[in-house]
Amino acid sequence: MSRIKKLMNTKVDGIGVVEIILILLVLILLVVLFRDQITGIINNVFQTINDQVGSLNAS
């Protein structure tokens, strides 16, 4: 019975190296797969910012 209590009272803190590597691999895979879409979104955002700054300067 004391073994069960010890097992239930143990805490698992932190993230292991394997979990971090797997998360990084998934993120890298997503970036590679959606590279064109991400680039398009970023270009659109900067184009909108430039257009709005240009309209403020023209006023």
Outline:
Helices cover 83% and strands 0% of the residues. By secondary structure, the chain is mainly alpha-helical.
- Number of helical segments? 3
Question: Could you give the order of the helices and strands?
Answer: HHH
C-alpha Rg (nearest Å): 24 Å
Main beta sheet: strand number and arrangement? none
Distance between the termini: 79 Å
Structural class: mainly alpha
Fraction of helical residues: over 70%
Portion of residues in beta strands equals under 5%
Choose one word for the global shape: elongated
Low-confidence blocks of residues: none
Count of DSSP E strands? 0
Mean pLDDT across every amino acid position: 86
